Amino acid sequence: MDNDAKKSIECEVELGHDLEIGRSETVRDDRRPDSLRGMSQEEIAALNKKLVRKIDLIILPIIGILYILNYIDRQNLAAAKLQGIMEDLNMTTQQFATAVSILFVGYLPFQIPSNLLITKFPRPGLYICAAVVIWGGISAATSAVRTYGQLLAVRAVLGVAEAVFFPGAIYYLSAWYTKTELGKRIAALYIAQQFGNAFGGLLAAAILQLDGAHGIRGWQWLFIIEGSATVGIGSICAFFMPEFPHNSRILSQEQRDLAVWRIESESGAAEGTEKESVLKGFAKALADPKLILLILCNMLSQAQGSIANFFPTLVASLNFNHTISLLLTAPPYILAGIVYYGLMSWSDRRNTAYPIIVACIGIACAMYIIPMATQNVGARYFAMMVLPFASVGPQLVLYKTINLHLARPVAKRAAASALVNAIGGTSNIWASYLYYAPPQFYAAFGTLMGCAFLFAVTITVYRWLVLRENKRLDSGRPEEIAKVVKGGVTEEMVRLNWRYEMY
User: pTM here?
Assistant: First the structure.
């Protein structure tokens, strides 16, 4: 083996690619871009470090800020409940639950076509930012509703506009980051979400003090201020959001080549280099048996995550006044953000997911029991401190799993990510009707315990499935490998000695 080939292989190990050297040596060396062939291992490692730092400093802050706005605008109805929107619009408790859940009627089905479309946009960042501006305007318009029917209409349209963001952001990040980097970046999104929830509660508490100013109710000020801020910030971010790695104007030619090559090296192709049609990628996603299990896992996980939609209501059951209740929603979300980073750092470092999911499920089950078993304020608030990270934590590694286990072709990954999030998110519709009969919420916490148990069973079956697929790949027998290819792995991934990991 010549020195250049050795350097190429050593460099890939340094970058964290766990490709087997013997079987894919020639393929990898052929794929190395001309601009990188003359570089030493140390030079490529330094260039990679500089590349990741640049991506982190530009992409992550923008995506994080937009996700904060996404969650603030989606959850502000829960805060508005504490300031009289139900009384002003003459809503019952069940009607309010419908107003919460109807957002997902628009949000869920539109994720799939949106994520298929984003693969065809040369500037996906601009596409995402345009959606941000639109949903900000719709959110601000909520202040003008005067009837329950008008509120339902606005919320449904808001869901359609917001459908672009989350699955699009996950897909977008997976186009830039390798498998050893993606987990912490998805965690960064969820950390932004939790700080959005925390900041949203604090901001709502401040805005609601404007109640009556200029003849405008506090809940109306909430929608006006937060929606207008989203429009302004989304417009600014549109000028800074990068394209895909292969056509990004923020990178030098060497950095573009490296950004594409490092993604190709671990999964066989990079964004912008495949010609797979959208419909064919969608069909391949539907044909993959793993997708059904991941959808079911996400349905059960998102049912537990529905707590976020009613968290101010849960905290209000502690019998504090409205302002104190909103302030008390902040600490659990801040703690969740910190725990998320720790979980995903461990996941990236140990290349694991299954133990994290099972541990979070176990902790969540214990926390569901506490509010049903006691009315002690301290014990109940302790459970509320823990539940945001325990109930939502598994979703982080699930999205990492989707983007690594159903990686290629690109259109398939985009479709799979949207399908898992869209169909899984239907849990938010029916779960919205569980949060009644305070302070113990037996229906809600009892149902969520059942979901947690089924989630543990389903993810265990998924683990068995991917480990079986790895054994087939390791066998080296053509008939066994053919079964794996039929199950969703591409021929190129087989040549690169690709394996299902983290389980």
Answer: 0.69
